[in-house]
Design goal:
This protein is an alpha/beta fold and 416 residues long. 23% of the residues lie in helices and 18% in strands. It contains seven helices and 20 strands. The strands form six sheets. A five-stranded parallel β-sheet has the order 3-2-1-7-20, covered by helices on one side. Strands 9-16-10-11-12 form a five-stranded parallel β-sheet, covered by helices on one side. β5 and β6 form a beta hairpin. The longest helix has 19 residues. The radius of gyration is 22 Å and the shape is globular.
Length: 416
């Protein structure tokens, strides 16, 4: 089976896919919009102050990294394929350590010559010659295209009433960089997941007050419920979600009013978006957090030569991408075959495409994600490691130690 494959994106997902394709004898061409590998892990300086989300021509941002960011997963869960992170790194490596590892791995795996840097893809369309991938430098045709641009590139901007009238800045966590820009400010962080938790701690030493406003389920994924003030300067507190914003105030859903607020940072996650696909693809729905249906959360059912990797949320991303990439590489090399179109369509009727489920329904979402990983392990012959138990134990560790969880030992035996 002869394949001519393009991979869009040279972040962890695209690099993993390329490693596994090479191992199966498929030599891909990788398109990368920037001048480096690493995707989100490649720090990008934001010019001047963070972009206000209400500005129509706000700057385009490729990375959400800020200088003091540290991984929230242990290094065992951060490796590309079987390339281990260096033993000397701390349990929760810094963003610089992760980027250095990604760069070194891309070189060791011989991927750099396969990458076309500074080639943002403008359009992908199916023609009689195959998939046409167009950039400013021209167009090329491929039998297969793997979309590896990630799930965290397009900010989710919630429609909070009055946000347009707020006098201070309204930014998204994607453009957050330096805490000293908020010196002496009262800041509202909208959202109650890992980004608001980490950014609040980064801000604490500089801000007057930091309010985290979101939903805090008692057993929620990565949610740390606390009463009173906490943080390095004991100036962080947790509150209900915003209902309405005034010129200087934020009214919360439980009736509390936060007064004299200087800035709002939306830690509200990201939506799926693939602008280079134009008006979309027949049979697929793209609605914010929902996308699909995709066969096995990867293959475009109408034409499985178009593949999306790394889209499930709230999972162990690197491990999931590895299994997806192993399966795709075996399919593209001809070692494995996909079922007939009618069987694919029958399976899609089961409504088990995790990309069409609400991430807020975490138990259901996790069950589907880890069931998919188990199935991929079986199909590829890879050991089925207990990543579900790993994540559950890690979240308990985070809840136990809360803001200091990275400072305490964490061990988990990843059994089959």
């Amino acid at each position: 089976m002869t394949t001519n494959t393009a991979i869009i994106g040279a972040g962890p997902t695209g690099l993993t896919a390329a490693i596994e394709l090479k191992r199966q004898g498929v030599k891909p061409t990788i398109y990368e919009a920037r001048n480096c590998v690493g995707g989100q892990w490649a720090y990008e300086m934001v010019v001047d102050e963070p972009a206000d989300v209400r500005t129509p021509q706000r700057q385009s941002i490729s990375s959400a990294m800020y200088p003091r960011l540290t991984a929230n997963l242990p290094k065992r869960a951060m490796q590309l394929s079987d390339f281990k992170l260096p033993d000397e790194l701390t349990l929760f490596p810094s963003r610089v350590d992760v980027l250095d590892y990604l760069d070194a791995t891309a070189k060791q795996a011989g991927l750099i010559p396969l990458i076309r840097f500074n080639r943002p893809v403008q359009k992908i369309i199916k023609t009689h010659q195959g998939w046409c991938v167009s950039t400013a430098a021209g167009a090329d045709f491929y039998s297969h295209v793997i979309i590896a641009t990630g799930k965290d590139s397009y900010p989710n901007i919630p429609g909070i009433k009055g946000l347009d009238r707020f006098v201070g800045s309204v930014t998204h966590s994607q453009s957050y960089r330096l805490p000293n820009l908020y010196q002496g400010n009262k800041i509202v962080l909208v959202g109650a997941c890992v980004s608001s938790e980490d950014i609040s701690l980064d801000l604490s030493s500089y801000a007057e007050r930091v309010y985290i406003c979101g939903t805090f389920p008692p057993d929620g994924h990565k949610c740390y419920i606390r009463d009173g003030l906490y943080g390095p300067k004991r100036n962080i507190s947790q509150h209900a979600r915003p209902q309405r914003v005034g010129s200087h105030n934020v009214l919360l859903q439980d009736g509390e009013v936060l007064s004299n607020v200087d800035a709002i940072i939306l830690c509200t996650g990201y939506i799926y978006n693939f602008p280079f696909l134009g008006e979309g693809l027949k049979g697929l729905e793209l609605r914010g957090f929902s996308f699909g249906p995709l066969y096995m959360n990867m293959f475009y059912p109408t034409d499985p030569t178009l593949i999306f990797l790394g889209l499930p949320r709230f999972t162990v991303h690197f491990a999931n991408v590895y299994l997806q990439s192993r399966f795709c590489a075996k399919v593209l090399s001809g070692e494995l075959k996909l079922p007939p179109a009618n069987e694919i369509q029958q399976e899609l009727q089961s409504e088990e495409c995790v990309l069409q489920k609400s991430p807020s329904k975490l138990d259901e979402y996790h069950n589907l994600v880890f069931a998919s990983m188990r199935r991929l392990s079986e199909l590829t012959g890879e050991p089925h490691l207990d990543w579900s138990g790993f994540l559950r134990t890690l979240n308990n560790h985070k809840r136990q130690y809360q803001q200091d969880y990275r400072q305490y030992p964490f061990t988990y035996d990843l059994k089959e």
